[in-house]
Design brief:
This is Helix-turn-helix domain-containing protein. This protein is mainly alpha-helical. It has two domains: 118 residues, no CATH class; 53 residues, Arc Repressor Mutant, subunit A (Orthogonal Bundle). The protein has ten helices and three strands. Strands 1-3-2 form a three-stranded antiparallel sheet.
Length: 181
């Protein structure tokens, strides 16, 4: 039985069967570096997720490092200057490395923005002086039963009709005193 690597498993979770082989064959059929870069760029533009783009880029880099791409000999001889110019001006490995760095930074930026929005939300909640029952439960990780028990124990609570409101400073002070006892 053939052993499947972790990399192959992650690839098959996002790629259709035989898509990897098609992509590999197309890479090998592009002896001109500029054409190869354009092909890979077009391929990743069509992908939606950042992880999927990065996976294709890593795979393309792996294939380029492991496989020699050679042009047809007669074509090479006829256009040797063009091939040499292409090799000097277009380096697909460097291009892939830059793309991977770009997408890694975008992914990091997205995760930082999400964290920043969570922090901003927490600051907004903490800056409010009056909280609802649900906000107190969320903030202090109390169940409804625990909150009602704390109110019965003397936690400051202001009731207006059927709604309960809590002054954040009063509640924080009461909890500090309660912990000290």
């Amino acid at each position: 039985m053939k052993k499947i690597s972790k990399y192959q498993t992650s690839w098959t979770s996002i790629a259709k069967p035989n898509e990897l082989d098609k992509f590999k064959r197309k890479i090998l059929l592009k002896p001109i570096n500029q054409d190869l870069i354009e092909f890979i760029e077009d391929k990743i533009k069509g992908l939606i997720g950042i992880d999927e783009k990065m996976l294709y880029l890593h795979f393309a880099k792996k294939e380029l490092l492991h496989t020699e791409r050679r042009p047809d000999f007669e074509h090479f001889v006829a256009f040797e200057d063009n091939y040499m110019n292409d090799r000097q001006n277009f380096n697909p490995i460097k291009w892939i490395d830059v793309e991977l760095e770009f997408w890694t930074n975008i992914k990091l930026l997205n995760s930082n923005q999400q964290t920043s929005s969570e922090i901003a939300q927490a600051k907004l909640t903490l800056s409010k002086s009056w909280l609802t029952q649900e906000e107190v439960q969320d903030m202090f990780k109390f169940s409804r039963t625990t909150l009602n028990r704390r109110i019965a124990e003397g936690m400051p609570c202001h009731q207006k009709g059927k709604f309960k409101f809590f002054n954040l400073e009063e509640v924080s002070e009461w909890l500090k005193e309660d912990e000290a006892v």
